[in-house]
Amino acid sequence: MGSSFGQLFRITTFGESHGGGVGVVIDGCPPRIAVSDADIQRELGRRRPGQSSIVTQRDEPDRAEILSGVFDGQTLGTPIAILVRNQDADPEAYKKIVNIFRPSHADYTYEAKYGIRNWQGGGRASARETIGRVAAGAIARLVLRKMFPEFDLVAYVTQIHEVIANINSRHVTAADVERTPVRCPDEAAAKIMMQLIDRIRQQGDSVGGTIECVVRGVDAGLGEPVFDKLEADLAKAMLSLPATKGFEIGSGFGATRMTGSSHNDQFEMRDGRVRTTTNYSGGVQGGITNGEDIVFRVAFKPTSTIAREQQTVTTEHEPASIAARGRHDPCVLPRGVPIVEAMAALVVCDHALRQRAMMLQSK
Questions:
Q1: Most Cβ neighbours (<10 Å): which of 172, 184, 264, 361?
Q2: pLDDT-derived band of residue 317, with 50, 70 and 90 as boundaries?
Q3: Contact at 8 Å (CB) between 295 and 118?
Q4: Bridge partners (DSSP) listed for residue 164
Q5: pLDDT higher than threshold 70 for residue 83
Q6: Phi and psi based region of residue 168 (left: phi greater than 0; alpha: psi -120 to 50; beta: remaining)
Q7: What single string gives the DSSP state of each residue in 35-66?
Q8: 3-state secondary structure (DSSP) of residue 74
């Protein structure tokens, strides 16, 4: 059950890090949505390893194979299955630690839950599972662009460790983000971030940071009251990603230092529409979009796999030490950007289809 996400636009991901491949099955995608291999490949290319010196050097082309649900360049309305084969898997590299629980990994918890685990690179708990999410997110974007002509979605790195960028969410573009390998539109901050990541990598350590995401051009009215609030589903989507530890929308925790009179988003009429003069709500009020930009942030912890020696225990509960050898990200943030975008697209697409279904039923 834990491998499926969404209600009307529903995805199920499958596969392990060092198995035959990973992928996704998408159910509920509307028919006659134009889809090309390039649409999916573009997003997978942004997520793939080996993009620069500051990410893991695992050499995977991550080529998507559309197995079903698309014919003659259009979706059929039937389940879409997408497979990405693993080509640079190295399960033998993990044989030396088969009986060791790696600190802050899911090794111990998976064994505690299931009584068995795939010790080859973390198996299902590996971030390689997110390939299916990114592929599905690429299709969700296409659905949203057809439903909302002004739809736009962009995520970017705002902080790595103690380096904080200066970015205006109202004006940042995808081109701005892709201008630097670290995917931070503030080029001065990006340069310092890259130097920091490289230094941390040489020290055998890792760092975390924050990704901000903005969704533009979405109508008011998306989201459900009480349990299925849009921000609640966004929070679940983001915290389901590997290495995430925090979520906030709009003013977030900063609202605790404000008064109601300074925090309230007052209404006005602008261009014939109800608008707000500020956007501390992050585009969502009462769990429902108000037509303003949806703005949220996701906190990522430092990568658990590091080259420094750490203390742990074995599956036999004996003390042991471990130091990673091989390929891993010293910072997950640059490759996390397209994954955050994908999950945001999945949530908004699902709620857009739910809203459309409700309006059709009410006619």
A1: 184
A2: very high
A3: no
A4: 159
A5: yes
A6: beta
A7: --HHHHHHHHHHH-S-SSTTS--------EEE
A8: strand
Decide: 217 and 151 in contact? Cβ < 8 Å.
Answer: yes
Q: How far is the C-alpha of 283 from the C-alpha of 339, rounded, in Å?
A: 21
Count other Cβ atoms within 10 Å, centred on residue 315.
15
- For residue 263, give the CATH number of its domain: 3.60.150.10
Task: Give the 3-state secondary structure of residue 322.
Answer: strand
Tell me which residue range forms the domain holding 166.
Answer: 4-362
Q: Which tokens hold the place of 129?
A: 């599972």
Provide mean pLDDT across the span 172-198: 97
* Of the candidate ranges 95-99, 227-231, 343-347, the one whose mean pLDDT is the lowest: 95-99
The SS3 assignment for 165 reads coil
Whether the Cβ atoms of residue 4 and residue 10 lie closer than 8 Å to each other: yes
CA distance 281 to 267: 12
Mapping DSSP to helix (H, G, I), strand (E, B) and coil, where does residue 267 land?
strand
Q: What percent of the chain has pLDDT over 90?
A: 84
- Amino acid identity of residue 272, one-letter, is G
Average pLDDT for 16-22: 87
Q: What's the one-letter identity of residue 238? A: M
The per-residue pLDDT of the chain, averaged, comes to 93
Whether residue 353 has pLDDT greater than 80: yes
What's the structural domain count of the chain? Answer: 1
